[in-house]
Design a protein that fits this description.
Elements: H1 8-17, E1 27-29, E2 32-42, H2 46-56, E3 67-71, E4 83-88, E5 100-102, E6 104-108, E7 114-118, E8 123-128, H3 129-141, E9 147-151, E10 153-159, E11 165-170, E12 176-186, E13 199-211, E14 221-225, E15 235-244, E16 247-256, H4 262-276, E17 282-295, E18 302-304, E19 307-309, H5 325-341, H6 353-367, H7 373-383, H8 386-393, H9 399-406, H10 411-420
Parallel strand pairs: 2-3, 2-12, 3-9, 6-14, 12-19
Antiparallel strand pairs: 1-2, 4-8, 5-8, 6-7, 10-11, 11-12, 13-16, 13-17, 14-15, 15-16, 18-19
């Protein structure tokens, strides 16, 4: 890899090898459509869109690399619209696209005790994927043709001569699309998770509800409401994101080994909405459902020369919470800066080593039943100032702060799990 951004002479050499032509210069023939680019981004989820946006908006004086974003066409391969939540100060790069944001969070213990806290100077933010995608399309349109979106499902990625990589994809009408690029960043979900000592699933279903009258407190997020029936292992909770006094996203979430079927989720949501929240006369105007692996697996970030993984498939999901979006921003920021500077764009580990060790310990303790999950999280939000706890959950606290937070966890149980980790084999988890 070059240490500096290539100039005209290097670009001419790349053109002769066939990896530096503009993405918008396509060639169509009997065999399909061929494109050439500097960068191919596979997948238009949070990671793929974030990287495409950063490449379309380079620092002053930097030339954007010619980029092709390959998004799955409408159909079974394409992920349904979804909601991403994260926390950061006001004035973030996506504030104009947010559905809502809040500066107060509430946690309910299993006994009904409520803890309401302030996140100041941070805000808890809700971003819908369709709004983010629309913003990414505007950024691509403003890039002067340097970023091109192609709707095609990728089915193979292969090395080519001269250090290039060829991405093979297919449009919904059957047309073959090939993209020849120097760097490929794959953000698609893995078909199977890597071996791990512990793998739990955070699985959920949410209803977008509208009530006949005011029913929600618009200024407060119900982050974890443990007044739900708890499974034998793991935990469950309700989650409420109010976007107005009579509209909210209401979710039922479990940390366990197996997802539920739709009927079981809907039963749990009805129980939570009526028995716990006391909703009456509401209609469901939309829903979303998902499964987020919480695992201490080690995710490879480079799978072949010139082929990298980014996002959840590269370990961006925080194992102890399931949050992913903030780590994706950190990871794609580093990758984009390396591409703009001509450096090796190997994606960084999204979470520091100490945070990964603490998460592995917590997952092990939860899975073995050594800690009471609802009591564990309720205690943390009761005893630790929320801004510090949120920074801890983002891996942004120092050792002294981490030790202070550790005083509020069941030390003996966590110590047993920590000592057990070196002797716990890594096994391939079953397919989700």
């Amino acid at each position: 890899m070059r240490g500096t951004r290539p100039g005209a002479t290097a670009r001419d050499e790349e053109d002769r090898r066939g990896v530096g032509n503009t993405a918008s210069a396509t060639r169509e023939g009997a065999s399909g459509v061929e494109l050439k680019a500097d960068v191919a981004v596979v997948g238009a989820g949070a990671a793929g869109l974030s990287l495409a946006v950063r490449l379309a908006r380079p620092p002053t004086g930097a030339e954007p690399p010619r980029t092709v974003l390959l998004a799955a066409p409408p159909g079974p391969v394409r992920t349904a619209p979804r909601t991403w939540c994260f926390w950061e100060p006001d004035g973030g790069p996506y504030d104009g696209e947010l559905t809502a944001s809040w500066e107060r969070l509430r946690v309910h213990g299993t006994d009904g005790t409520a803890v309401t806290t302030s996140t100041t100077p941070l805000r808890y933010k809700m971003l819908r994927s369709d709004a983010f995608e629309a913003m990414a399309e505007r950024a691509a349109a403003d890039s002067g043709g340097r970023v091109t979106r192609v709707e095609a499902a990728v089915h193979r990625i292969t090395p080519a001569q001269g250090g290039a990589v060829v991405v093979h994809a297919r449009r919904s009408d059957g047309t073959e699309v090939t993209v020849r690029a120097r760097h490929v960043f794959d953000s698609r979900p893995l078909p199977r998770l890597p071996p791990a000592r512990t793998t739990l699933l955070q699985h959920f279903r949410g209803w977008f509800v509208r009530t006949t009258g005011p029913a929600f407190e618009p200024s407060v997020v119900e982050l974890m409401d443990f007044r739900t029936p708890q499974p034998a292992r793991g935990l469950s909770f309700g989650y409420v994101l109010p976007v107005g006094p009579s509209e909210a996203l209401v979710e039922y979430t479990e940390f366990s080994h197996r997802p539920l079927d739709c009927a079981a989720y809907d039963k749990a949501l009805r129980d939570y909405s009526t028995r716990v929240l006391g909703l009456d006369g509401y209609e469901v105007i939309g829903c979303e459902q998902g499964v987020v692996p919480m695992t201490d697996a080690v995710f490879p970030r480079r799978t072949a020369p010139g082929v990298y993984r980014i996002g959840a498939c590269a370990g961006a999901t925080r194992p102890s919470t399931g949050y992913t979006f903030s780590a994706v921003q950190r990871q794609t920021c580093v990758v984009a800066a390396a591409l703009h500077d001509g450096r090796d764009p190997l994606p960084p580990r999204p979470h520091p080593a100490r945070a990964r060790l603490m998460d592995a310990t917590l997952l092990h303790a939860l899975d073995r039943g050594r800690v009471d999950g609802p009591a564990f999280f309720t205690r943390l939000f009761t005893a630790v100032p929320t801004p510090r706890l949120l920074r801890f959950l983002d891996g942004r606290t120092g050792l002294t702060e981490d030790l202070g937070i550790g005083l509020h966890v069941p030390v003996a149980a966590m110590l047993v799990s920590a000592l057990s980790l070196p002797f716990t084999p890594r096994r391939s988890p079953p397919a989700v």
